Amino acid sequence: MFAVRFERFGPPEVLARGELPEPHASPGQVRIRVRTAGVSPVDLAIRAGKSRISLPHIPGVDAAGVVDEAGPGAAVGDEIFGAVDVARLGGATAEFAVLAFWAAKPPAMPWAQAGAAASGIETATRALDLLDVREGMTVLVDGASGGVGSLAVGLALARGARVIGTAAPGNQEFVESLGATPVPYGTGFLSRVGPVDAALDVAGKGSLPALIEVTGRPSAVVTLADFNGPAHGVRVSVGELGGEPDGRHGLAAAADLFTAGRFRVPVEAVFTDAAAAHRAAESGPRRGKIVVALSE
């Protein structure tokens, strides 16, 4: 099969198309012919050499496509979206990919949205569950414009919460377009936005003391990005692949919300060149997800 892979660590230019053996689904898994794959922070970190794994490596943890080796609840020909096994941390940016968890893709959902979002949806869902976000609450998302942050905004709004989202100056209008009230990064949230019921730290910019102040207690804050959280009494939620398998329920719920017109996956750009996609993902503050298109 063809695959985008790298044989040495380095900048995006190390990515190249080549031939590699096809993967096959094990029990409990499913294989797809990939249409689109997302670019996640873990992909950038691994490619840059921050996690030493065996080479060659195929990046990509999120993908969408058409099933060609069936798995539980998925028949050949089904259109699905999902993510790879957490132990592999890659394999999606290829002709074929094996998914460890997935859901049916809504017929109207664009392939770009489907391929970008699985791990981010599960990660955001897990964090919102930990915060018990529900109708009538006010939630602050610190880092609302990026891939996971923008998904957390949409999912919190779908639960009936009011959302305040922090972002860089150039992304304030984007955060507003998501349905959140935008505010700049910084401290002094209490004086700027007033008290909130819960806060989610996606940015990892050292804001935990300010988030504790604005919520009134550490138990109302969850961080995805600051592993000093326990020192502040703040819970750290699992990152990119969204927690333990038995706890994953976000994909099917998000698909239903999409079908009902209550949720979308913000996509900043779609590339056919994986190196260009990685360069874009590294270039600065994000406005949603970056996607690689693998096939028509």
From TrEMBL:
Record keywords: NADP
SMART domains registered for this protein in UniProt: PKS_ER
Keyword match NADP: yes
NADP as UniProt keyword: yes
Annotated transmembrane regions: none
CDD domains: MDR_like_2 (cd05289)
GO molecular function per UniProt: oxidoreductase activity
InterPro entries assigned: ADH-like_N, ER, GroES-like_sf, NAD(P)-bd_dom_sf, Zinc-ADH_QOR/CCCR
Domain Enoyl reductase (ER): 10-292
A Pfam family that the UniProt record links to this protein: ADH_N
Positions in coiled-coil regions: none
Descriptive protein name: NADP-dependent oxidoreductase
